[in-house]
Known about the structure:
Blueprint: E1 3-5, H1 7-15, H2 17-25, H3 38-53, H4 63-71, H5 79-97, E2 108-109, E3 112-119, E4 122-129, E5 132-136, E6 139-146, H6 157-172, E7 176-183, E8 188-193, H7 196-215
Parallel strand pairs: 1-4, 6-7
Antiparallel strand pairs: 2-5, 3-4, 5-6, 7-8
Helix pairs in contact: 1-2, 1-6, 3-4, 4-5, 6-7
Amino acid sequence: xxYPLSATKLQTYRQCPQAYYFKHERRLTVPSAFGSPTFGKAxxxxxxxxxxxxxxxxxxxxxxxxxxxxxxxxxxxxxxxxHEGWQALETYYxxxxxxxxxxxxxxxxxxxxxxxxxxSNIEFALSGRYDxxxxxxxxxxxxxxxxxxxxxxxxxxxVQLGLYYLALEQTYHHALKRLSLIYLRSNQCIxxxxxxxxxxxxxxLIGDLALKLRSDQDWHPQEGSQCDxxxxxxxxxxxxxxxxxxxxxxxxxxxxQLALPFL
Length: 263
């Protein structure tokens, strides 16, 4: 089987190879700090329906179309969440839809990103999801909706840019030119221009990971700000004078499948 990759996994590896080893090779779990995603799911599903079910026979949908779609996804929400969600969607409409001459049909809505490639005779498989994918004049723009109250770009943004560039070029034969994060609660949009340098950086990062997987080298800890919130401190020699042995629940390291190199 191909070795699975994601932006989150590669960001963990870049921050600390040992934390990556504990989490993804030995599959140790730590308690989750995330709450209920019900509110975020409702807004994402409403936006997906808005773009997917609109007939595009008329240039622009009315605001009532947004309201109708939102009403179909509020059954599990509190009254305060229903109100806040509609405020976010109404603001989105006035900023991103109403000023346009027409609503452009996306290339994809809530689609999957899948790609495969080989590095150092190891076959990798990349999979992920996106909220919306649009055509630009010279390539593709990936739109990601955010429902967090704070505007804080993901730590793995550079890794995401490289992986999305690699996967979308393989899938659509067009380069990813821009990644836009739309923060619905604060009405802000942060965009990143994607360059070939991002592709080279991700290839170097994956190549380094591939060498470790092939040669079974030590996964040395890398200290940094991430150590304060790391759930594996008790097993880490860099953070604990007498680290605990890995628990019996730890899985054996994954075996990677070697493949023929590219010709």
